[in-house]
Amino acid sequence: MQSSLIAQIKQHPLLFALSIGLHIVLLIILTVSMSHTSAPKMPPAKKVDTVKAVVIDASVVEEEVQKLKRAEENKRQQQIAQKNKLDREAEKAREKRRKEEQRLAELKKQQEKRKQELALREKEQAKKAEAEKLKKQQELAKLKKQQKELEQKRQAEQKRLAELEAKRKAEEEAARKKKLAEEAEVRRQAEEAEMRKLMLEEERRLAKQSAENQKLLVQYIAQIQ
Fold it and tell me: Is 50 exceeded by the pLDDT of residue 45?
């Protein structure tokens, strides 16, 4: 019981101090009342008024004590309500943080997936570009081979024409030899023109292919960026 009283005093020190003060006031009032009662000049009516005053003061004190108790209770209830409010706000904050963490984790997961997709696409593009490069190299090698073969044929044809021209010079007159030589030259020029035409067409095709490859390379670089 003594420990319970001490706990109540610690919990409500202001109320305890006020109660002690009120008891002291009551004690002083009772002492003064008793001293006035022992005096010979105090009329009997004054004693009755003093007792009533003491009773009234005691009720006022009790009422004040009840007010203080109600105030303490209201304060306690307000503290509880404030604590509950803070707990709810803290729970909301934790929930918001949890959702934010989930959202960030999802974004990170999406970014990682996007990164992997870009890496795979980059690898495929690089593989495709390497295949295109190899194809171009093969086509260029083929073209060079064709050019070499054409050059060999041209040289062979020139040699053949030279042999024919020499044979005709030996068999025909100078005018006929000249005519044959001119005809041979015309044929040679036609063949050279045809060969140049073929080479020009091949160069145009290679230029077009190079432009298309350049366009694909620009698109690939733009996708990477």
Answer: no
In angstroms, the CA 220 to CA 118 distance is: 11
Per residue in 166-217, pLDDT (tens digit) is 777 777 777 777 777 788 888 888 888 888 888 888 888 888 888 888 888 7
DSSP string, the chain: -HHHHHHHHHH-HHHHHHHHHHHHHHHHHHHHHHHHHHSTTS-HHHHHHHHHHHHHHHHHHHHHHHHHHHHHHHHHHHHHHHHHHHHHHHHHHHHHHHHHHHHHHHHHHHHHHHHHHHHHHHHHHHHHHHHHHHHHHHHHHHHHHHHHHHHHHHHHHHHHHHHHHHHHHHHS-HHHHHHHHHHHHHHHHHHHHHHHHHHHHHHHHHHHHHHHHHHHHHHHHHHH-
pTM of the model: 0.28
What's the Cα-to-Cα distance from 88 to each of 76, 101, 180, 188, 204, rounded to whole Å? 18, 20, 112, 100, 77
Per-residue pLDDT, 182: 82
SS3 41: coil
Torsion angle, alpha carbons of 126, 127, 133, 137, to 10:
150
